[in-house]
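FORM 7B: Structural annotation worksheet

SECTION A. Query
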Amino acid sequence: MEEDYLFDPESVVLRRADPDDCDAIINLVEIGEDDIYNRVYSYPKILKLIETAYLAITVIDRNTGSVVGFAAFEDFPQVSQPF
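SECTION B. Predicted structure
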């Protein structure tokens, strides 16, 4: 039997990402020493993404102050070749 989960939007804070968030963001995606996520989302790439993205948002738990989410958006599609 599934319980209904109600998300409380007052429990989180969304703010523009800061380079100081980099370590916490890496901890969100880091699973093991040599997995696909670590190769894709390594430290320099996360830092560059925060600094160069059109909009980079960090989600922080209001109660603990820990980073619980991250999103980065560009103002253009990531298509390398037209079809």
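SECTION C. Observations
The first helix runs from residue 22 to 29. Residues 31 and 49 are 20 Å apart (CA to CA).

SECTION D. Sign-off
Analyst initials: ____
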